[in-house]
Every structure is written in C-alpha cells, then in structure tokens.
Amino acid sequence: MDGQTPKTSSSKKPNVAKSSIDVYAAQCDECKKWRVIHSEEEYEEIRSKISTEPFYCNKKSGVTCDDAADIEYSASRTWVIDKPDLPKTPEGFRRHLVARKDYSKLDTYYITPKGKRLRSRNEMAAFLKQNRKYEGLSASDFDFAPPKVMEDTVPEIFSKRGSDSVRKKIKMTKNEDKSADITGEEDFE
C-alpha cells in the first residue's frame, strides 16, 4: 500500500470534534480589563468561585490593573460567556464545547477518562452507574449548560437572523374549503 498506514474504524481515539474555544479569559472585577487565562483548568478554577472570589488582575503574576488588557472584547472573534460558579470539571474528565455552524449556540459535552463523549446528564448518570470507580461523583457534578454566545460578536453572515434572533415562519394550513390561511409563528431557539 505504498508505505501508508490504512485508516481503520478500530481506532481507540474518540471521534470528537475540535473544541471551539481557543482562548480563555477572565475580566478583572476592578478595572474590567480582560486577562488571558493560560489553561482550561485555571479558567475553570476561577469560574467555579467567581461570585465569592472575584477575579483581579493581580491574581496573574506580575500583572496589575495599570497594564494594558491582554485581549479586547471585539467582533474580531466570537465571544461566549460562561455562567458564573459552574462546578469545576471532575478530575480525569474534560468539558468540551463545540459551536454550531450558525454560531447560534455551543453544545456542551463531557469526555470521560475512557474517551467516551457524553451529551447529557442522563448519559453521565448511566456512565457513572456502570463505572463504580467514579462512585464519589454524581451527574449533578457536571453542568451541560452552554455558555451564552455574545450576538454582537457573531460573524455578520450569521447575525442577520431576524429581529432579536427570532425567526418568523410562515405556515400554510388548509381549511375545509381548500383555501390557505397564513399564520405567523415565532420559533424561539
């Protein structure tokens, strides 16, 4: 086969889409500047306690509020904001976020230490029940809530979705005399 390795379906690697998050950042509670956080684990630690322990610039070594922001909030990239105080992902698991093609939202998955992708709290509960070595964990230790996509940073090609991200659908219904009634129906995603 010309020295190439054939691709097979028996690969042990999970077939998981690449995470849509390329930079983690936290906003200083004092100066409101954004600071890049260098690892997902460090970001999750900050996020899990943000209400009780606000983030300040000086939590980064050698950084003060007088320094320029690490990153500016702008439409040069799509921003998403996580809910505050989400629990830190349990050790061995990974929280995985993937943007939908239209940037309408991110889907949240958890990757198990065995490489299995779980899409819901029910799937997580079933996995934990089948794997007794994770006995100290419960499905409530995992939050599948997606971060909020900041609409003002979504690429323009996707942001023209109607007023307030509401799509109007025209629905044709036939009545008894075979004429058509047109009704507007709002579809909230």
TrEMBL record:
Residues 79-149 form the MBD domain. Residues 18-73 form the CW-type domain. Residues 162-180 have a biased composition (Basic and acidic residues). Pfam families: MBD, zf-CW. PANTHER family: METHYL-CPG BINDING PROTEIN, MBD, METHYL-CPG-BINDING DOMAIN-CONTAINING PROTEIN 1-RELATED. CDD domains: MeCP2_MBD. This is MBD domain-containing protein. It is found in: Nucleus. SUPFAM superfamilies: DNA-binding domain. Its main location: nucleus. It comes from Malus baccata (Siberian crab apple). Residues 162-189 are annotated as: Disordered.
